[in-house]
Amino acid sequence: MPKVLIVEDEAAIADTLVYALQAEGFATRWLELAGEALALLASEPFDLVILDVGLADISGFEACKRLRQFSEVPVIFLTARSGEIDRVVGLEIGADDYVVKPFSPREVAARVKAILKRVAPRATAPPQVAAKQGPFRIDSARCQIHFHEQLLPLTHHEFRLLQTLLAQPGRVFSRTQLLDALGVALEAGYERNIDSHIKGLRAKMREVAPAAKPIQTHRGLGYSCCLVH
């Protein structure tokens, strides 16, 4: 039974989420403070975290940053703010989805199921890329990619994007095709957030090899990966 941690300081909202998730077969745990949630996540495994942005002790954004220092558990943000900049910031720091209040608890449960289905290991699926691709080494089973023999600290979205680009070096992928690789529907409004994820990937690769530019931008078309770097 998948375990979902709900971090929300409004009891009424938490109760509706607990009810909706348990009705879908999830085990749930509810906490009101981010600090308590981080301590729990450091000691106990969960399959997904639903994290409110406006918490009493630490903001959800800051809590997610701290969480990403030791865990890649999927995160869905809950927030009353619907501005594009807030969505972009949330996704850039490692969130997997973003839900604006007021929301349908059943929709949140559906998003939880979609994310867990997307990140679940598929033992019978063939590897999407070779173990070695130029300066990259891909471990699909562990969702890890090494660049020049150094492990890249990738979020789930960053891993899927880079894995997709490496599967067909030189091919130009449109933003829509990359969204498909993430399992995100186009109507979710994430198309431009692909640019943010690419920016994050480039920054992490520059920390390993400052002069390398393996991800190429094709204006008006999309992105490709070059293995000569």
UniProtKB/TrEMBL annotation:
The gene is creB. The keyword Cell membrane does not apply. The keyword Phosphoprotein applies. Keywords: DNA-binding, Phosphoprotein. It holds the Pfam family Trans_reg_C. Residues 128-227 bind DNA. The modification 4-aspartylphosphate is found at D52. This is Two-component system response regulator CreB. Residues 3-116 form the Response regulatory domain. Residues 128-227 form the OmpR/PhoB-type domain.
